Amino acid sequence: MNILLVGHPNVGKSVIFSQLTGVNVIASNYPGTTVGFTEGEMRFGEQTAKVIDVPGTYSLSAPSSMAEEIAAKMLAEGDLIINVIDATRLERNLHLTLELLEHRKPMVVVLNMWDDAQHKGILIDVQKLQNLLGVPVIPTVAITGEGLKTLQESLSGAVVPVHAPATDEQRWVEIGHITESVQSLHHRHHTFWELFGDCCVRRSSGIPIAIIVLLTSFFCIRFIGESITKWLTEPAFEYLWKPFVKKLSAVLGGGGFVHHVLIGKLIDGDIDFVQSFGLLTTGLFVPLGMVFPFVFAFYLWLGILEDVGYLPRLSVLLDRLMHKLGLHGWAIIPNLLGLGCNVPAILATRILEDRRERLIACTLVSIALPCAALQAMIWALVGDPARGGGIGHVLIVYGVLFAAWLLIGLVLAKILPGTSPDLLMEIPPYRMPYWPIVLKNLRLRITGFLREAIPIVLLGVLVVNILYWLKIFDTLAMLSAPIMTKLLGLPKEAIIALAVGFLRKDMAMGLLATMNLTIKQLVVAGTVLAMFFPCIATFIVLIREIGWRGMAFSVAVMIVFSLLAGGILNAIL
Amino acid sequence: MQLTESAVGQQARIIEITGGHQMLARLAHMGIHKGIKLSIISMPIIKRGPIVVSVSGAQVAIGHGMAAKIVVEIADR
Known about the structure:
- The complex is a heterodimer of chains A (573) and B (77).
- Chain A has 573 residues and is an alpha/beta fold.
- Chain A is built from 24 helices and nine strands.
- In chain A, helix 15 (342-348) crosses helix 24 and helix 16 runs antiparallel to helix 18.
- The longest helix of chain A has 49 residues, at 203-251.
- Chain B is an alpha+beta fold.
- Chain B is built from two helices and five strands.
- Chain B has helices at residues 21-29, 64-67; strands at 11-17, 37-42, 51-55, 58-62, 70-74.
- In chain B, strand 2 (37-42) and strand 3 form a beta hairpin.
- The longest helix of chain B has 9 residues, at 21-29.
- Chain B is globular.
- Chain A binds chain B through residues 58-59, 61-62, 64, 88-92, 95-96, 122, 168-169, 172, 197-198, 201-203, 206-207, 312, 315-317, 319-320, 328-329, 421-427, 429, and chain B through 8, 22, 25-31, 33, 35, 41-50, 52, 55-66.
- Strand 9 (424-427) of chain A pairs antiparallel with strand 4 (58-62) of chain B, so a sheet runs across the interface.
């Protein structure tokens, strides 16, 4: 038995899904969070039923993005439909409801955000609505769980609706009648949040607010990340972990193959967590000590911005700019996600309308947007005064990447045939961050990061150490020496870091740290590493999402632009 | 007049939408169709940017190209 959760984007389907099944999924305050579909199970009478969280859709008849296409296709597989409606926006939600009724499958309607509706002075006569639609109607507040028990009980009473097919126009007439007879509005004043929301998209106030938000984000993420490193992860490694590893090093006799793999090189007779490059030293310190704090800070901040509802407003502001890059404002969401991790960012491009846009967005994300893990390492190395770096050098890297992002977008918009479609997007209301959701999203993303990063970093360190031991890298370095030394001004061994970057970029940056580079070389190498081949996880989703041909195109653009950027930096710095 | 010629704070009623079938359907599913009343929340920041309107309790951003194809009349409050 398949139970489908169907509704407009951003009505709380994912929260209801989590509540019904206990499966955790990321929920946020903007449309399009669920771009694939998620399955879970729930008790249904004596048996278990499969619950499917269908991507949000406005319509079944005219899908306008890949996410909506998925939704329309999935409907055929459902045995029971739970249609989730935002009670504060009854009228506009009913169009999809009427379309669903015509499918003649057992159905229950959920009026979610019932508390918000009451606060807004919207009264809905549930009994009357139930009579008019001919299926059970259940008011709920999904985030607190209110009404969900009633919903579960009502599922066995789901009725197959009797509803004649109609045209769009006929449906709107019917919706007019329904809302008029079941809904009454009480006048009330605009709230502070509503007024502030309007300010964020207006001409005079929107841009200053956006600049403040972005600058605050930048510095808060850095501050939180650095504080955790300084007060938590570095002391933990230095005082708790180091004594143990030192003993192990002594037991292993301070050298030999096993020591080389587990501990790595001793720097002046001591263990250096950045430079030793063993499994138990750098292999653990990079993901846990250096990258984790930054990833934590980034996702905490992103989670708050998401839940408050700022991001859709940002996309209205940036629509014009994004059009120049062959995209529209909405595409800012995958691009921002890309600064966390490229994989979910590339999946999120499914919210875009056509193939051309998706190809551009995927290419931009995979080339010009450094993930949080890599950014953490860039900050740690390029921004390290001990290596002659500082905030200025870090900003050079960011500046070049941003310029590349703009330039690649402009070029692709010119050379790819077609035009970018117009923005058409619902803007969610502002609200105070709802902490249980923010924290749950954070936990999901962090565990995702740890589960993904640690094994691959360890594997990478192992492979690198074995290949070093066997001197296989020497051949690779010889072959690529002309490009590395002549064009980029890097030692020929730097190719090893670029090759390792295919596994994980943060580890590749860690490898560069062992090579005694000058600050100029670090800036060049960091920038090229960020733009050069995406890591393997990104590579796999890219192929899945834009196909081999799209991928080949992306890679060609990537090789040209990364060597160009590195060469120019090397020439002018 | 076109929706792009209205001003912030105005109430407008849609008289006609002069786009293709696909565009009409997309707008309709967002609750924007002939006869409905909009209020204008914001006009574009830069020329040819999107317009934000409030329609039946929700705010919707409409790109410039689409907005130019929506014909409205100013409605009384």
